Structures are given as structure tokens and as C-alpha cells.
Amino acid sequence: MKNKILFVLALAGILAGTATAYFFSLQKAPLPPVFNPASNPYVSGIYAEGIVESVQPSGENINMYPEVPGTVRQILVAEGQEVKKGEPLLLIDDSIQRATTEQLKSAAEAARTMLEELKSEPRKENLDVAEAQVVSAQATLKTAEDELEKQRTAYQIDPRSISKDALDSAINAAAVAEANLGVARRQRDLTKAGAWIFDIRNQERQYNALEKSYLASSALLAKYTLRASTDGVVLSISAVVGSYVSPQGAYESYTQGMDPVLVLGTPQANLHVRCYIDEILVPRLPPPSKMKAQMSIRGSNVKVALDYVRMQPIVSPKIELSDQRQERVDVRVLPIIFSFQKPKDLNLYPGELVDVYIGD
Asked: Is residue 94 pLDDT above 90, yes or no?
């Protein structure tokens, strides 16, 4: 009985091992690929890596940098929003610059008021006072002359009636009164002549200097508002309210570098592809008039025909697609720009890398 049980267990083990070996020896059919890899549609086509960007007549996307540093006070647009040229995009705290501008404005207005005051001289009230002083001096002179005449007449009649000292005092008083009348008349003429031309010119220069300082300060104040340089679409915003921005851009906490504060592009119905042709492949490029190109969208089987737009005729280090400060550059490339119409049923945005084949 015991031998039968051992035989049955051994047979069961053999059957189980055979079944397991057969099961694991079976090969499952491979799953079909989600998308086919990019293939060369041309007989002698050359490959290039490209990057999608918005349409620009020259250069690349418009990177917006403020001309002044400061803390972001308000962001007036959102990513994907269409904007018009001159439309405000972002406000930087301008409290200090605004106070400086207002101070210079007040100083310029004060200088202008002083200039107008000089040009409006003589003031009627001052001229009236000067005329009254002349009349008073004339009356004083008349009184002194009358007194002198009396003293002289009495002295001529009887020299003992008036002392020689009293007569001399009367003569001196008349001379002083006459001199005072001359001073009063000159003061009246000076008042009537108005401000000295050199005082006016000096005040004009002070006013012009303060006015220009105010205008310069106002121009600087305007730079605390970042405005759209052209019609376009906001592609990205790197700043947030309360963050610090500068002419070098906004600090990116993930890459620990400086990024543009905003990036503007054109409406994305039509897009560009910037391709970088390895310098080794440049001699094989067909003439622009015969150049054809096809773009493969990574992660899909979509292929889009491209139209030649322009070439940047300078071979430069391949640093456009990576961090130029850290990459060791051993390859030089020639940029060529193509255009295409964005497929309506495809998600495609500026900044994506694509595979491009160029032929003739």
C-alpha cells in the first residue's frame, strides 16, 4: 500500500513538472507597437532633430525680460491668452520710483512757477510801491528845499538870526533828500524794467533740467509695466505674484537657472519647425528651391509635410536644445526653418521635439 502511494505521488510530480515546463516554454505573441518609429521617406534624405516654435518673421519666440528689477505686484494675463501690441502683461512694484517721479514733478512745477513769475515782472503792486516811494522822496525833498530857502533868507536879512551851523544842516538835509529821490527813481525804474534777462535764462535752465529729470523718471516708471511688444499669444509665464524678477529673467526653482519672465508667440494655427542640420550633413542638403521635408510627431504615427521658409546661414555650436552653460559642445549645426499647418486633431505645442527628414 505504501509503495502505491509513493508511486502515485511520483507520477503526479512528473506530470506537474511536465505541465509547468510546457507552460513556461510557450512564447506569447509580442504586442504591436503603439506607434511606428520615424522612417526616411526619401531615397537619400537626411535626418535632423527639430523643435516646434511659433511663427516669427525672424529669430525665435519673443522672450520678454523687464528692463528694471523688482517684485511682481500683479500678472494681468494668462498662458494661452491672445494679446495686442502695447497691452500690459505684468506689473512690477514701482512705489519707490513713483515717489521719486512725483518729487521731480513737483520740483519741475515749482521751477516753472518761478520762471513764470520772473517773466511776468514787474508786478503791479511792486510798481505802485516804487511809485509811492518816489512821490514820498519828492515831498521830502520839497520840504527840505523849503526849509533851506527859509534859512538862507533869514541869514541874508540878519546873519545873527540863524547860526551858520543851522544853515549848513539845512543845506545837507536838502542834499540828502535829493539823493534819496534819485535812489527812489532808480528803484522805480529797476522795478519797471522787470526781471534781469540773466535771471530768467538761469531759471529757464533750471526748469528745463528738472523737467527732463522728471521725463526721464517717468520713462523709467513706465518700464515697471511689462507690455506686449507685438500681437501674439502668451506661451509661458515664469513669474508669480511676489517673486523677484530682473533683466536676467525669473529664477526657475527646478532648473536653478534664469528663464524669460514671459514668452510670446504667434497664434498657433500655423507653426514653424526649427531644424538643426549636423555640419557633416550640410553638403548633402538640396537647394532651397528643391528642398522637401517631412516631420514625424513623436509618440504618434502622424507625419506632416513641411514647407521651406528660410535658412540661418551660419553654422553654430549645437547648444539650442540644451543647457549651453553645462554642455560640452562637440557638434556644430545649421538652422533651417520650415512651416506647417497644425492638424486640428493633434495636440502639438511650441517647444516639442520632432524628427525631420529632408530630401529633394
From this structure: yes
- Beta carbons of 262 and 90 less than 8 angstroms apart: yes
Residues 106 and 210 in one domain: yes
Inside any domain, residue 300 = yes
Please give the pLDDT value at position 88. Answer: 95
Whether residues 276 and 239 share a domain: the answer is no
Q: What is the mean pLDDT of the chain?
A: 84
Go through 72-105 and write b for each residue having 16 or more CB atoms within 10 A of its CB, e for each that does not: beebebeeeeebeeeeebbbbebeebeebbeebb
- Sheet architecture: strand order including 244-246: 225-227, 88-92, 70-75, 244-246, 249-252, 257-259
The number of residues in the chain equals: 360
At 311, list the grid cell: 535658412
CB 228 within 8 A of CB 264: yes
Same domain for 281 and 357?
yes
- On whether residue 143 sits in a domain, the answer given is yes
Q: At what angle do helices 164-193 and 124-157 cross, to 10 degrees?
A: 160
Greatest mean pLDDT range, 104-113, 190-199, 258-267: 104-113
| 295 and 353, same domain (yes or no) | yes
175-191: pLDDT as tens digits? 898 898 899 889 988 88
- Count Cα atoms within 13 angstroms, Cβ side, for 98: 6
Question: What is the residue range of 307's domain?
Answer: 37-55+266-360
188/207 same-domain check:
no
Q: Is residue 247 part of a domain?
A: yes
- 78 and 180 part of one domain: no
Residue 249 identity: G
Confidence class of residue 169 from pLDDT cuts 50, 70 and 90? confident
**How buried is 208 (Cβ within 10 angstroms: 0-12 exposed, 13-18 middle, 19+ buried)?**
middle
How many structural domains is the chain composed of? Answer: 4
pLDDT in tens, 151-161: 888 778 877 77
Please enumerate in sequence order all residues whose Cβ is within 8 A of that of 255, keeping only pairs 6 or more positions apart, or say none.
323
> Does 183 reside within a domain?
yes
Q: Is the pLDDT of residue 320 over 60?
A: no
> Quick check: 333 pLDDT over 60?
yes
